[in-house]
Amino acid sequence: MTLLSKHILLVASSAIMVAATSSFTLDNSIRPASEVARDAARKPLEMVTFAKIAPGQTVVDMLPGGGYFTRIFAQAVGPSGHVVALVPRQFAERFPKARTDIEALAAEPAYKNVEAAVRGLGDVGVPNSVDRVWTAQNYHDLKNSQLHADTTTGVNKAVFAALKPGGYYIVLDHSAAAGSGIRDVEKLHRIDAAVVKAEVTAVGFKFDGESDTLANPADDRTKLVFDPAIRGHTDQFIYRFRKPD
Question: Domain range holding 47?
Answer without folding.
Answer: 3-242
